[in-house]
Amino acid sequence: MSWIRRRQSGAEPSGERLPDLEFLALVRERLEAYAPGATRGAELKGDSLLSPRGWAIAVAPPEHAGGHHYDVVAFPDVSVQPDVPCFRDCAVAVAGDPRQAADAWTQTAGACLLELVSAGDGDFAGRVGPSGEQGVPGWSSIISGVLGYGMDEGENERLQAALIEANVLHRIADALGPALESPFFNGVRIFYGGAPGSMTCEVRVNGEYDEAASAAMAALGLPEPTAFTVVRLFALLLPASADDTDDTDDHHGHSCGCSCGGHLDPEHPGFEISEPHLLAELSPEERARRIRTDTDVLKIAKDVGNFLKVRLPIRLDDGRTVVYLLWVYLRAEVADELVRRVNDSDIEGFRFEGLLCNTVEPWGEDVLRAPVVLGGQRVNPDGSLRYSEILESSDPLLSRILTETWPAEDVLGDRDPRLRTP
């Protein structure tokens, strides 16, 4: 999942609710700008935008108060008769600008539509399998980027980042379950933000307000806006098929030959996670567009974040220590300070803060996004720099993981290299 930058519409808002076909003309325009060629041959007929590829988009009678809402219904395949599967979403014309509403729908629900009817390469929206860290367990998920719009660009980005880091869709999955009724696909719209002191957390499933899921989202403690700002994302949840593959972090040993625990030695076990989970979800095209720095230790991706590989040591009850090499998220100013200190050879003793960006077995997602304090750098005799280490955490579970001793069989299980030693 990633951020979406606001795109300028290039036109003054009309201040009036457009007739349905005029709004659909804007949708066609924005879809074509978003994905050139996607609307080739699509025509406005009757009350719909019809594509020769078999999909259609219509505007339903408004179900919300006010004249600037557009209830948009997408039909991925109109050949399925008589009950054509569809999903709906509501787009609101902020400040009366219908072009903005069309653009917001296009970059979220529209992106999911394009991904669903495409070859499925992640060109338009992210794809997450039934065991993925960002989706809903048991469902294959198509997830748009996170769109933010409001009075202040910095506040847009802050709330976009908050929604991404909170991993809302996955964390409210239990509450969503009863509403996922469609055997074809279920549309989920997540909406968050508003004016200072008047924040809204809203989840709609198949166009209907879901009270349980909205309450679960509100309980996540997302930050309130300091200026009018709203963010939204859309997801399509499809029943998992036998062809779906699980999305799991790649734990593997590596032969760094140092004391960091990165090699799969029976007496010094260690596991390396190849990427932070937010980067693992990017398509190849998104990686090419977003990643600016990509080294074994530091990865920086535009509109996604700054990530540093660090050590997480866990003491076992048999006297060994297992070390995970995993990733933490750093604020931009912290990442800049870290790089400066490394370049100035002034890194030893430097303490800084971040957020854990991977799951850790056997605790799984219970430690994902936990705040951490890092340090422990040391220059080795050969001149190389030891990885920064997670020293402490204000998260109760991660604090226990760092300070207590754990049964080896619980932490390592069948991954224990001693089990493979003759």
Note down, in words, how this protein is organized:
This protein has 422 residues and is an alpha+beta fold. β10 and β11 (198-205) form a beta hairpin. α1 packs across α2. It has 11 helices and 23 strands.
Concise summary:
The chain has helices at residues 20-34, 98-117, 153-166, 168-171, 173-176, 211-218, 277-280, 284-290, 332-343, 396-403, 408-411; strands at 3-4, 43-45, 48-50, 56-60, 69-75, 87-92, 126-128, 139-143, 146-150, 186-195, 198-205, 208-209, 229-239, 251-252, 270-273, 291-294, 298-301, 305-316, 321-330, 352-356, 371-375, 389-392, 405-406. The chain is of the alpha+beta class.
- The count of strands amounts to 23
Structural class: alpha+beta
DSSP strand content? 25-35%
Give start-end ranges of low-pLDDT stretches. Answer: 5-14, 245-264
The N- and C-terminal alpha carbons lie at a distance of: 44 Å
Q: Report the radius of gyration as a whole number of Å.
A: 24 Å
What is the overall number of helices? 11
Q: Can you summarize the main beta sheet?
A: 10 strands, mixed
The mean pLDDT is: 83
Rough outline: elongated
- Percent of residues in helices comes to 10-25%
> Oligomeric state of the chains?
single chain
